[in-house]
Design goal:
By secondary structure, the chain is mostly helical. The protein has 19 helices and six strands. Strand 1 and strand 2 form a beta hairpin.
Length: 453
């Protein structure tokens, strides 16, 4: 049985969480040691010894990682103490000089920002790759028509290209938000020490430049005690996951026999343990389900910060639990969505057939009457009666003859017939941002520009 003090140490330990920051902790420590030497805060030879020791630790940890397991001391309180202990074992008392003019408070904030910067750049690349996949598929389906829906009811026909580009622009905004957040993440806390700065003549600009930060933090209290950059990322991550979930949901619906618009690849589906005919959209369902992890992490991080007095409090140790939960979810979901789209087979014939007798061309008949002088309210009533007539006869509007149209209203004529086919209805939506091939080509040109920026 553990003593109470042992239980407390176990409860307080964070090595199992923050161990993944080891590369960034070493990088920041090397920059700090180099600055201490150049500023003559510690002996130059000591600084060089410290740096050599840290580099050696990095090589050893990288080798351990390549073998699949890094052997950290389970008794270590956190990553920082583990690395300092290893350094002491290598170079002796000189290792104790490394912590001059810094605290674990500014150290962990620096490590977390460095780590998140790398991850955000990777996620921006993932978003770009997903946008490219949507763009490439959209180019192929300018005249592939399917029902555009509101309230999950057929509204008006749209092209598959137009539908895919809707997600392109959602993800483009996600990428913009992530890119914009880099300038706020990239603020160096190191040099803030515990909370009030340090009396040593440190050079924060030197460290900032070596580590690649855009600026030095302006206020030491703020630098060690806020995690708004974590919350901001999780907010952006939540939006990304929401957009992925919407696309996943449509792929799930569209792959059902009732829709039959798409067949998902074997790489992202599974069979049933009892029903041999099943092809379950597991990956899409898991993406949809894992949105909750990121939304939960966002709420967790917001709650963690609520009511915290300045400056550092141990509550902030939990920031990485939430951050890593978000990062470990968003990246794989983006990459698997790319795979899912690459392996899917669209069913244009089934999409087109689903428009038969769906009356999603009714608005165009009303517009035809308006163009010929009728008010829209009157035209709406006329077409409403025509739809009822078709329902009674088991027909679609596209099945009507000119005589049947004229029997409903005298203003219908030969030009009306050309406006009824669903493909023509789609092509007629030529306003900027619309679904016509002409309008979508303009969208594709804009989309291509974002891919090359």
């Amino acid at each position: 049985m553990k003593t109470n003090s042992q239980g407390s140490r176990t409860f307080s330990a964070s090595l199992d969480i923050d161990s993944r920051l080891w590369e960034h902790d070493l990088k920041a420590s090397i920059a700090h040691a180099r600055m201490l030497g150049r500023q003559k805060i510690i002996d130059t030879a000591q600084a060089e010894t410290i740096i050599a020791g840290l580099l050696q630790i990095g090589e050893e940890l990288a080798l351990e990682m390549s073998k699949g397991v890094i052997k950290f001391n389970p008794e270590a309180e956190d990553l920082h103490s583990e690395i300092e202990t290893r350094l002491f074992q290598k170079i002796g008392v000189a290792a104790r000089m490394l912590h001059t003019a810094r605290s674990r408070n500014d150290q962990v904030a620096t490590d977390t920002r460095l780590y998140l910067l790398d991850e955000v750049h990777l996620l921006c690349d993932n978003l770009l790759d997903l946008k490219k996949e949507l763009f490439q598929q959209a180019q192929l389906h300018l005249e592939t028509i399917l029902p555009g829906m509101t309230h999950l009811q057929h509204g008006q026909p749209v092209s598959l290209s137009h539908h895919l580009l809707a997600y392109f622009w959602m993800l483009d905004r996600d990428q913009q938000r992530l890119n914009d957040s880099i300038k706020r993440i990239s603020s160096l806390p190191l040099g803030s020490a515990a909370l009030a700065g340090t009396g040593f003549p440190i050079d924060r600009i030197q460290v900032q430049r070596e580590l690649g930060f855009l600026k030095v933090s302006e206020n030491s209290l703020d630098a060690v005690s806020d995690r708004d950059f974590v919350i901001e990322f999780l907010s952006h991550g939540s939006l990304i996951m929401t957009h992925l979930s919407r696309l996943a949901e449509e792929l799930i619906l569209w792959s059902t026999p009732e829709f039959g618009f798409v067949e998902l690849g074997d790489e992202v589906t599974t069979g049933s343990s009892i029903m041999p005919q099943k092809k379950n959209p597991d990956v899409a369902e898991l993406i949809r389900g894992r949105v909750g992890r990121v939304h939960g992490a966002l709420m967790g991080s917001l709650t963690m910060m609520k009511g915290l007095p300045l400056s550092y409090n141990r509550d902030l140790q939990e920031d990485k639990v939430h951050l890593f939960a978000g990062l470990d979810t968003v990246g794989p979901c983006l990459r698997l969505m790319i795979l899912m789209l690459q392996k899917c087979q669209w069913k244009p014939h089934r999409m087109r057939e689903s428009l038969r007798k769906d009356f999603s061309n009714a608005t165009d008949l009303a517009d035809d009457l308006v163009e010929k002088g009728l008010s829209f309210r009157e035209a709406h009533e006329v077409v409403g009666r025509l739809v009822q007539t078709c329902l009674s006869a088991g027909k679609g509007l596209e099945d009507l003859t000119l005589a049947e149209l004229k029997a409903t209203h005298i203003l219908f004529n030969e030009t009306t017939l050309a406006k009824i086919p669903h493909l023509q209805v789609m092509k007629a939506r030529s306003s900027q941002g619309g679904t016509s091939p002409e309008a979508v080509r303009a969208q594709l040109q804009l989309a291509e520009m974002t891919l090359t920026l």
